UniProtKB/TrEMBL annotation, chains A, B, C, D, E, F:
GO terms of molecular function: isomerase activity
Biological source species: Sinorhizobium mexicanum
Family membership noted in the UniProt record: Belongs to the 4-oxalocrotonate tautomerase family.
Ranges of biased composition (kind: Polar residues): 1-19
Keywords: Isomerase
Database matches in Gene3D superfamilies: Macrophage Migration Inhibitory Factor (3.30.429.10)
Chain intervals for the UniProt region annotation (Disordered): 1-23
Protein name: Tautomerase
EC supergroup of this enzyme: isomerase
Domain 4-oxalocrotonate tautomerase-like intervals: 2-68
Amino acid sequence: MPYVNIQVTREGTSSGESKTTADQKARLIKGVSDLLLEVLGKPQSSTFVVIEEVEMENWGVGGLPVADYRKQLAAEKAK
Amino acid sequence: MPYVNIQVTREGTSSGESKTTADQKARLIKGVSDLLLEVLGKPQSSTFVVIEEVEMENWGVGGLPVADYRKQLAAEKAK
Amino acid sequence: MPYVNIQVTREGTSSGESKTTADQKARLIKGVSDLLLEVLGKPQSSTFVVIEEVEMENWGVGGLPVADYRKQLAAEKAK
Amino acid sequence: MPYVNIQVTREGTSSGESKTTADQKARLIKGVSDLLLEVLGKPQSSTFVVIEEVEMENWGVGGLPVADYRKQLAAEKAK
Amino acid sequence: MPYVNIQVTREGTSSGESKTTADQKARLIKGVSDLLLEVLGKPQSSTFVVIEEVEMENWGVGGLPVADYRKQLAAEKAK
Amino acid sequence: MPYVNIQVTREGTSSGESKTTADQKARLIKGVSDLLLEVLGKPQSSTFVVIEEVEMENWGVGGLPVADYRKQLAAEKAK
């Protein structure tokens, strides 16, 4: 009876998209459910997958909102 | 000092509604707080209840987004 | 397809117990499942309830570990 | 590799604002990351902070939605 | 920068084991990280996976602790 | 009424310790509560902080359990 919670930043990762698409979500759900069946033998009907999309300004890493963190990394690389 | 997190799909469950109503949320909050007082003696003022409504396409079960899963179940029953 | 997460401090609340008993947990599970059926019409077979017991020193309130916070409250009342 | 999840009600706490501002979020992210570095020596690049803003009607305390709970407290104080 | 939380009951799923093995956990971690790279292009170094094993008596489904629920299902099938 | 959940690997970070100490936990609780008061004006009595210590083999990053990931990083640096 697994429960899986996936948190990602709300942003597009395929061209022309500004957020995770329904198709990408369906692939995440299928992939995680397949994995739990394969590794632990959990029947798919008892696996819940919940995807949470988090606004960019609500996600922090490196002590900064993620957009600022990426700019900082890019600037360091450019040195 | 309990903390309770309730995750449900964002959809209407009473007629004419497309989401959980404020009244339904208030009943969930009261019900959970009553339960923790009754079973564990926790004072209601120190029980937090947080309700999260999850978009249908973000909730998976049976390896599928929940809407597809329900269609599949319905199709199987109709056989 | 609700998922409910209940977090409580790991401590006994009935006489002679040092933690939540299996019977108390079963009552919490039943109570929450009944509530979601009653308020939102969710079938019980698709409601997951996960109880997490948190060590006292891992739970903070009022800027203090919960045991210290209770002592502080008791001392204030005794004034 | 810490992960920190901060849940707050979605409401303004500085004058003229109806929600937590981007600047306040950046200060929360920095503050938590500094704290984990200081107390546990965790490098900031491996600390994730996720802020979740919860609608007022989705947050319960004292057996009531938080707005009703505050009204009740205010009424008691006014007695 | 995804964060994935996997909750499973604490029980063995391979012969002779009473809990999820370190090898099974490693496969879950790899599988989820591969999936997020493949579907969303997320670099593996910024994907956190946290596995939580939940005591059987702390997991409820169908209004019952999971062990009781399984017995009930088995009894129904045996009819 | 904030709720803050802090997840860290279960390991010692000060000399001679194999886990986070009670004193370190108290400092995390105080630090987070101070921060929420300072940034959002939240009274400390209504801030909950819950610390979860996660077994090393249950935490993954870079597609690996965290211990293996650190070894890999160290090996790369040593090249």
